[in-house]
Write a structure and sequence with these properties.
The protein contains nine helices and 14 strands. By secondary structure, it is an alpha+beta fold.
């Protein structure tokens, strides 16, 4: 059985090792924990005898964690791990990665808390921080909430969850609807009727199968408010159009919409527009 100080040293060894995938010297661990190298070396000898670390002799030697160390700390070993980030104020907290999420109080009607096990310096996260975790690699879980506790010894943070979403593991092309396009020379009075008949609020403008813009109801309303009744789709179209390739994962489309604060993307097959996806489409699929 290892004590609290040894567990802290072991966690630090694993964190440093995961960063560079190479042996770690006692000086690096000592600097991280603000302790003497001699103290670290003494503890490492004990941990080596217990089978938690492998010692590498020589002038450039050091230590690396054994499989037993990962098992002791309930951490997984991956050949090619995917970093799951924690964001605060829309910025990544560098050097801190999620290892495990455990949900608590699931049956509670008003609250849900989560214990997040991380690798890295938990001291970079403070009580009261509003953070976003994810998306996770397989189920694309995104967790948002407020930090209400922190355990530096066990590298855990406790958050009260405000929202938990899971984006379906699907390709964007599976969301593609019939694409209604406008030609650059189409008159506003004509495509206004198309919008009403087809019950749409946006359509891409194309020229010889090439995407050149996007018209939404907002552009139509603005043109009418200016008295510009003879405007064409090419005249009023938004020229900078956000797109996503048809073979992209849905999570990529969600991240683009979230980053740019837009409600729709044009789906492309290389340079050809082939569909459209909206935030409403995604939400509808998630609640099915």
């Amino acid at each position: 059985m290892i004590n609290t100080k040894q567990e802290e040293i072991l966690r630090t060894l694993i964190e440093l090792y995961e960063e560079i995938k190479d042996i770690i010297g006692s000086d690096a661990i000592a600097k991280k924990l603000n302790r003497s190298s001699g103290t670290i070396r003494n503890q490492m000898q004990t941990l080596r005898v217990m089978g938690y670390v492998d010692g590498i002799p020589g002038p450039h030697g050091g230590y690396r964690p054994s499989i037993k160390a990962y098992e002791r700390l309930n951490l997984e070993i991956y050949e090619k791990p995917v970093n799951v980030y924690i964001h605060r104020n829309n910025e990544k907290i560098e050097g801190v990665y999620v290892q495990k999420i455990v949900f608590q109080k699931i049956p509670h009607p008003e609250e849900c808390s989560s214990i997040i096990t991380v690798t890295g310096d938990t001291g970079k996260i403070n009580n009261g921080d509003i953070i976003k975790i994810g998306p996770t690699p397989l189920n694309h879980i995104i967790l948002k909430g407020k930090v209400v506790g922190r355990d530096d010894v066990h590298s855990e943070i406790l958050i009260e969850a405000d929202s938990i979403t899971s984006i379906p593991r699907m390709k964007v092309s599976e969301f593609s609807k019939e694409l209604i396009t406008l030609n650059s020379g189409d008159k506003i009075k004509d495509f206004e009727k198309i919008f009403i008949d087809k019950k749409i609020d946006g359509a891409p403008v194309v020229d010889k199968n090439r995407l050149i813009g996007l018209v939404t109801l907002w552009e139509i309303v603005e043109a009418f408010s200016r008295g510009d009744y003879d405007a064409t789709a090419g005249d009023i179209a938004i020229k900078k159009v956000l797109t996503v390739q048809k073979d992209s994962q849905l999570i990529e489309a969600v991240e683009i919409m979230d980053k740019h604060k837009v409600g729709r993307l044009i789906i492309m097959d290389n340079e050809k527009p082939v569909g459209i996806i909206t935030r409403t489409d995604v939400i509808s699929r998630m609640i099915e």
